[in-house]
Amino acid sequence: MRRFIQCAFLMMAATATAYAVEVTDSAGRTVTVPDTITRIYAAGPPASIITYMLAPEKLTGWPRAHHAYERPFINEAYRDLPVTGRLTGRGSTANLEVVIGLNPDLILDFGSIRQTYVSLAEKTQEQTGIPYLLIDGRFENTPTALRQLGKILGVETRGEELAEYAENLFSEIDQHIATVKEDDKPRVYLARGPEGLETGVAGSINTEIIERAGGRNVADYGPEIARQRNLVSMSIEEVLDLDPDIIVTWDRQFYDQVYQNPLWQPVRAVKNRAVYFAPAAPFGWIDKPPSINRLIGLKWMTGLLYPDHFSFDLEEEVRHFYRLFYQVEISDADLQQLIAWSRY
After folding, report:
1. Digit-coded pLDDT (tens) for 263-303
2. Single pTM value for the model
3. DSSP labels, 181-246
4. Which of 150, 170, 190 is where one domain is finished?
5. Does 189 lie in the same domain as 160?
């Protein structure tokens, strides 16, 4: 493998004159990229989503194969791109031979810019000779990321269009949330996994939209814990002690059994039948993964938490978002299947 990488690096060095533009990524790294980028290797699922939304023709492949229920919500021209694995996150499946063999102009990671990811980017770029960009994937950075990548990828108009959607949504929500007292904000628990006992801590990338929509994440362990980790495992006793007003989940197995499960019966949200299912096709509305896909989830979440203030036609909003961001027209049947359990 080392010889393969060395040979590939020499071949890239021979064409280095094409690499003429210096850009600064979100980690403050100066990276030289081609004048024209035509092939992008997405280091993980969040990067594949933002690339697909901005410039799907440049995406070399998906980190994993799409499930059957996800496929109708991805533009037909890009559903069957190769499965290329991932370099970052849980269950990394790609190796550098695979990456180099795809002949990308750029490796893109969208998400955390902690030192762990900076080190991976530096090491991978050094070993392959392929420029590697880190773009801040925090939800609040969405408009900036879309404009930044739109410019780098040569699709500035597209980047601006999507960034404006995000900015308008943020502005609408922020104006209302600013008028809500902290004690009046609903207390929310994100139930992950089939038993609902994994959750995202307050301040984590996994629960950003709950907090941005004006919810109080009951799994609040302080900023220090949030900096160290995103997800924690809970016991049912801990959930009972937190006693959330609202539970949100994207796990259908948990949602199907929570109202019948005696362990969950004493929880306030269950007693009040305030457990809500967030759609997850083609990508999650809350996280799974935490990328630009969460914008539609933010709209949905604000309607859930503040129905008297945020009133909108969910079907029309979903059609508009999927047309704009996923570049797909949804059939009536697929739309109903997507949002069947998400209504308030």
Report:
1. 999 999 999 999 999 999 999 999 889 899 999 999 999 99
2. 0.90
3. -GGGSPEEEEEBSTTS-EEEPTTSTTSHHHHHTT-EES----HHHHHH-SEEE--HHHHHHH--SE
4. 170
5. no
